[in-house]
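Attaching the record inline, Q. Sequence:
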Amino acid sequence: MPFKKGDFLLIDYVARVSETGEVFDTTLEEVAKEEGVYKEGALYEPMLVVVGEGWILKALDESLLNLELGKKEKIKIPPEKGFGERDPDKIRLYPLRKLRAQGITPQVGMQLQIDGRLATVRTIGSGRVLLDFNPPLAGKTLVYEVTVQKKLQTVREK
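Structure, as predicted:
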């Protein structure tokens, strides 16, 4: 076991939705550009994590204990260990006029804040909007391709 709780690591990763192969996050600029998820101004460099401190998904954090320095590993995270299962109770109909009164013209796929909660517009019709308050990655199996680039040793590095 090359790493232990409390170790400071620099990791690179590409995070995909297993079912579709869609990249939803990465530390690699060229991958972000290739996959169409590049964000201008975002920092693309290895991410600092402290093993066991909960800075990343728990299942991913725990898997770092079994990785080797410099070796790319695939880590599969089922929904229950990722963002949870989809909850049908978190899907609600909302009056279109209420959104328009707030200056919002909803479109399918759009994300918006309603009463301080993030929702995704699923459908629009008959004066109503179907809003999904589940996290966007709920119910999805995630696959992380992770490479531990460096273990920080000295106080100065940390």
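The longest helix spans residues 29-35. The two ends are 21 Å apart (CA to CA).

More tomorrow.
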